[in-house]
Design brief:
24% strand; 6-stranded parallel sheet; 2 domains; 11 strands; 5-stranded antiparallel sheet; alpha/beta; Rossmann fold; 7 helices
Length: 251
Amino acid sequence: MILITVTQTQGSVPREAGTWMVVKDDGIIGTLGGGNVEYQAIAHAKNFKNESEQTKRFALGPSLGQCCGGVMNLSFERIDAAQLALLQAKQDVAYKPIALFGGGHVGRAIVNVLATLPYRITWIDSRDEIFPEGVPSKVICEHSDPVQSAVASLAAGSSVLIMSFSHAEDLEIVQQCLRRNREQNDLPFIGLIGSKTKWATFKNRLRERGFTDAELAQVSCPIGVAGITGKEPEVIAVAVAAQLLQKLYTL
């Protein structure tokens, strides 16, 4: 197996320094951004004979049939299965944590989308046997009853998505998230599925429980990027994923 790593970039390029991919006899893992530069890098890796690390410069210009204008320096290194496993483990640790409350149709659609993105997902529900078989490896399923008790053990820095089968459960989860942020301030995003009317009702109840308007402003409801109005689970999932990615790249 040959590990290809982007070691340095200049100008406009498809991926940043630190990006890696592995070329195996039976396929590839990861991507350098596609295009002819990736094709040429794969070809070079397949013909790689030197056991030591080697660096090659790729200019994304006419010679590659690309017009980005940038430059990518790529290193090539032979690795074994243990080194690949270590790379993948480090990548998993670097993924941002997400806690998703709710195993219904929308929750399932969101998991399917987020599992392809740079996130680690804890999927939580109070109901037994709600989770499907064969969830992606980046997803940990957790049964919690009462469901809001799981908030205390969430990883620091978790973005929280709340969409349980019950509005009563949703309210308790929101409350626990706000209490945790009051004490620890380590949940950067709290998203609640629902209408403006639902959120207006929740705000009144949460104010009665002692939460300030500044604290309530931590909650995003309805969730998803503005302008996407479809109600299908898959549409909501894409809108929510887009909102999370906006937050990820602005934090």
